[in-house]
């Protein structure tokens, strides 16, 4: 668990993941006593922000007392990190595509060799069969 909190009938939280990947959100209702006040209804509002526009830099600047220059540098550093992650992903995809292409090319080559062998073997067998046929009929 990265975040576990208990709330009363109302609550809100903000969570920023520091690691990429798949995350799961689990909500658990421990008591129904709050539901009695609301006619047995439970409302959950889930607002998720994903991607590059999730950081509120004005709030960050106010909390950390950053100058405009420091704030802009931090934005640029985060953009560079995202570009690097995207480049690594694209390299991984390119490598995987290259492996798939090489595997496919190798299979095509072996299929060609097998077809050629079968064609040559069938031709030799037909020549031998026709030769013995003509000898049996005394045409040669």
Automatic annotation (TrEMBL):
<dbReference type="InterPro" id="IPR009038">
    <property type="entry name" value="GOLD_dom"/>
</dbReference>
<dbReference type="Pfam" id="PF01105">
    <property type="entry name" value="EMP24_GP25L"/>
</dbReference>
<keyword id="KW-0256">Endoplasmic reticulum</keyword>
<keyword id="KW-0472">Membrane</keyword>
<dbReference type="GO" id="GO:0005789">
    <property type="term" value="C:endoplasmic reticulum membrane"/>
</dbReference>
<dbReference type="InterPro" id="IPR015720">
    <property type="entry name" value="Emp24-like"/>
</dbReference>
<keyword id="KW-0732">Signal</keyword>
<comment type="similarity">
    <text>Belongs to the EMP24/GP25L family.</text>
</comment>
<keyword id="KW-1133">Transmembrane helix</keyword>
<feature type="domain" description="GOLD">
    <location>
        <begin position="1"/>
        <end position="75"/>
    </location>
</feature>
<protein>
    <recommendedName>
        <fullName>GOLD domain-containing protein</fullName>
    </recommendedName>
</protein>
<keyword id="KW-0812">Transmembrane</keyword>
<feature type="transmembrane region" description="Helical">
    <location>
        <begin position="108"/>
        <end position="127"/>
    </location>
</feature>
């Amino acid at each position: 668990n990265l975040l576990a909190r208990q709330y009363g009938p109302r609550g809100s939280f903000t969570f920023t993941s520091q690691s990429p990947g798949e995350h799961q959100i689990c909500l658990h209702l421990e008591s129904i006593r709050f539901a009695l006040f609301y006619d047995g209804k439970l409302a959950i509002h889930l607002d998720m922000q994903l991607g590059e526009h999730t950081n509120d830099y004005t709030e960050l600047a106010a909390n950390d007392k950053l100058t405009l220059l420091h704030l802009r540098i931090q934005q640029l550093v985060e953009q560079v990190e995202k570009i690097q992650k995207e480049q690594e992903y694209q390299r991984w995809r390119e490598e995987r595509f290259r492996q798939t292409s090489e595997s496919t090319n190798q299979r095509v080559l072996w299929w060609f060799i097998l077809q050629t062998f079968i064609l040559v073997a069938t031709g030799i067998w037909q020549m031998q069969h026709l030769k013995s046929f003509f000898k049996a009929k005394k045409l040669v």
